[in-house]
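Weekly modeling sync, notes
Attendees: S.R. (lead), two postdocs, one rotation student

Agenda item 3: backlog of single-chain predictions. S.R. asked that every request posted to the team notebook include the full sequence so nobody has to chase files. The rotation student volunteered to paste the first one in as an example of the format we agreed on. Action items at the bottom.

Example entry:
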Amino acid sequence: SSESCHEKQTIELPKCKVPDSVNFQSQIFAAPHKNPIQEEDRRIREFYSLTCSTCCVTYPKFIDYKNHLISKHNVKKPTIICCDKKLTRRFMLLEHLVFHTNPEKYR
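Predicted structure, as returned to the notebook:
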C-alpha cells in the first residue's frame, strides 16, 4: 500500500526502513545475549519505540536513535516520553522499564 507511517490510524507499527549502516536484523532476531549491555539494548528496543516519527526510520539502540535525532533533525535533547516522564538517558529508560515490568519493586 502507498500509505506512509504517518497516515495509519491503528496501533500497528509502521513498515519503516532500516538504516543500511546498522546490522539490525541480527540484533532483533538473535537469541538473548549473554552480554549485559546487549541484553539491556534488547529490552529497551522491545519496550520503547525507537522509530523516528519524522522520517519513519527504526533504530536498534537508543544511542543510534538519539544520534539520528540530533544530526538529522537538530533535536537538542532527544527524549522518549512514557507516563508523562521525559526519559533522556539510557539508564532512565532502563529504570522506568523496571517500573512497568516489575511494579512490586516500587511498592
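Discussion: group reviewed the output briefly. Helices lie at 24-29, 36-47, 62-73, 90-101.
Action items: rotation student to repeat for the remaining queue; S.R. to check formatting next week.
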